[in-house]
């Protein structure tokens, strides 16, 4: 019911909530926080109440805050008066004389205008359309289900009060769980009920206020009534059946005497004049008055559940009864959307938001919020525009039937022309997608001012892809301007711009040069249309324009990123240069050398091993920006290694660092040449986006640079196959949080720069791996992704031959052919024809349409053919859907879900029998809707994201207090910008909950996690993998707070979603089952624990941490049952695993050994008692070995990744040797040696790391880089040990640790070590990479001016990226000289002096 909030507007009351931020410039001045005071509000027919205001508020801010209150809503057109004097809306409250705490402000009803009267009616409509639980499904939006889980059975008010109570109540729940889990959630069950996914909400449907509300037939008001003030006439039909005609005029609303047949505008007898429309309705209808009173007295859901999301999140399931759920939304009142006098100028709105000031945090927050609101409105307009255009309600503005263009609502929408150069229709769709990615890349450049891109989005609807853009200013030239030069029309840059010189062009080139440096693009020269040389900072297609608004725009950026040489085979045999002049001068030997250079860059036997390079279905295969950054980091590691080896060969690093000769300079030159740096005195990687473009010609002078670029692109392409794909699979093999569905698989691959066209190579790599069985879940996902993507392409073509009345029948027929083996269309019987006639379709329509003749075998052949052409696989998909089920364990339900999410199909919520071959499982009535699927630019949340990353840095160093502080700041900033409805806000809340839990604040963790779950459900989807993770974490925090029933519900909900999305055979199912084994009781506990052990053993093997923890849990359960023999067996397996991982002296191994001894002693006691005293004596001597609740909570934290046990001895030894070497170098060079370094030479290698590196601590204070802090020297550790599930947790350095009681059989475990993880367990958390080892070159977030050391070998295994900050510069061991002469990603303007020369990077050259 909140007007501005639900419309997406800025909520001034939210904007001025007391700041949670501490710091210099967090969110305003401290004096503002202390300037709040209460005032009393009365008048305008509302009950008097107190309002907390702030002195720096404007009067209009206070009015807006009042209008959002439930007790004032839906009143509008109000002003404030103090002591009878009206207040100026633009005056600050603190400047008003007589306004002091406790002062009385009176609401004054202002006269309406025609416009404000319509706005008031729009607010009334928001009241009448109070959202119900089915509204989200009706509109195709993902709902929030959490409220149904948090409802208590004994709640007397089933209206959402349960969730509000759950968000605030932190008392321990004493009631036991409601009962056993349903059969379909037990391990081994194959039943997958869809009805359980979306349970009925306890929130009742919105009540019926009126039967009808619309504009009267007597509108518009005649002239003589206009002169008397009549605005419009409204017809109301009350619930009692009374029909009333109401007049709107300046003073408000009154009942007139008109009927359906007679127009009589005079006021009815005894009709009051009401300023508020609902007051008049209460006077007319007692039923309306009663319903309104009930609505205002009911408890409200939290705002995060009511506010609209910035973008549409598709729900693939709709209401069970779509027709019955449709309701009257009073749209005939005609006040929803005023007919605009002109279409909105989306480009001007977006650029005006981008041009907002950014001088302070407050200004940046307002700018980020404005950008998000404009972009959200633009995306919603694109969705409506796509439906209008594709459904045929808009006429094209051009006469080209092959590429029709449309103007609708300020949008320019087109299909795009299919070019044979780019690969036909596939190339056209790819160009539209790459254009969006290019726009996103330029938008993400931080600090780039003055270079603009148009608002852009692409939308897929009914098998068609449309590109939508805002109208660019100054591009529509008049006819007399067509003959003028390009410069006079604003074209300043591009191949077709021609040679020109102007101040505008120079300013544009400066911005383009800055952007090229940030995107790692090389300045290059190409041959223009008139054989003149054209210098470029972008791809050859890009154009730079000076718009009529005075802004510089860059367009056509779809080839911004470099080409993928793996799919450019035709370019391997031809040259792009103009070689005639050089060929006449070159010798035969040089020609042979040239042939060799063409192949330079490919690894040995690369083609025979991978089958690459090869052709692709289109010619727009480009590298992803993530891959470019990962490859640069990889090359930087090679550069560092080369410099180190050269220096070692010339006398050693220390000698070269102090000697004043050219050895160091020469080492850098050799390394630059070796790795392919574009400079010979500094490490800098740039890529030419025009290389491997067949239509581009380069001048002869570019031949050397071109060969280098071809070599680099070949190396980058091979880097995907040789490094990134194996690293991704290694991460999936080691992690229990591997991708669960197509969305998470796509995100995980893209984070490593792996395009989805490499899915076939992922399959090949898994098939050739010795860990094939452990990667079967990834194989299953890749097969499903190939299948659904190929099916979507076939579906797009299929829909082109379907007319609108047959869409539901055609889609259902397609799905039956897809999922039912050997499905054949049945001939239309007489009964079918009768049904078709009754439904309004022509008789026998299914017989006369080509789509109805599609058979299952034909469809499967089309899908297999597309998969073979696109992914270079054969016979993988088999002969039908049953092959996927039997050979790969795929679920038809999971395939159906993936297909619906990718195509926008919404199905009716019911249980589908997809294995029934005698009857079509999906009918036309099951297809509820086809929604547009929009891809759009994501607007940054700069300050909030920066605070979030800073918190991650502190958390990686174990500084929980600082991390908690910055996370609270980040959550506040996210609330200011996007009302928390943002994916990164979800990750931030989840991480804040983890940090609070680690600090011992279980109640706060639970409260914050509740919000994270709701955000994930609404922003990502109710069944998104991240939502599964969030429910599991909420279960842990609820269990920690004593709410066993809620914890059980959350974990069972997560398991239900897991079974639907992927199935049971996944590592994360084992995690959920382990947690359920702790929460449940009785024999079902053992079922879940045994299933978890089976899964962990099959995926990770017996010698893995998760498997060992599982064995311990089973041992505990066996002890609770008195089965000590089985408990000993499981604990022996756990001890063997801990010993193999950590060694015999590790505290975890010692703890397991002690627990095994305790079990053995108890077993001996029981056995002896049975022999000597009989069964009764045995019962008396058995000692209870059940774990305490606190110990169970800690075990759940270990299983879910909130905390983890790690082996640190090798790293401690490395630290000791590193500090000794650093002290020796400093002493040799004459620098003062700190006491810390001297003490570290004799420090015990297993001691706690209290001597934090000064440089590392400085990085922590400055925020640092999230990727640079992994395995940091100054990382503080929280100690953790388990024996029989009991925990000893010594107080941490920050003072938030707490010690838990130790049960029987426990001993000293204070030396057991654990580390605080970064908390990024959400599926798809940005920046999560496989294997943080720098040698793999994965980390793309390189610290400015710092290099990452090579991976540190600990006990013969790679321990990860050991970051060595430069402090002081040049004194670190192992190649720190490269810190002085290299820049990993060329991202900063620095001048480096090497060998007497100074090079300024990034200088604009013409």
TrEMBL record:
Transmembrane segments: none annotated. Keywords: Cytoplasm. InterPro entries: CLU-central, CLU_dom, CLU_N, CLU_prot, GSKIP_dom_sf, TPR-like_helical_dom_sf. Residues 584-596, 1248-1261, 1296-1318 have a biased composition (Basic and acidic residues). One of its GO terms (biological process) is intracellular distribution of mitochondria. Residues 1-34, 133-190, 475-499, 571-596, 827-849, 1240-1278, 1292-1393 are annotated as: Disordered. One of its GO terms (molecular function) is mRNA binding. Gene3D superfamilies: Tetratricopeptide repeat domain (1.25.40.10). This is Clu domain-containing protein.
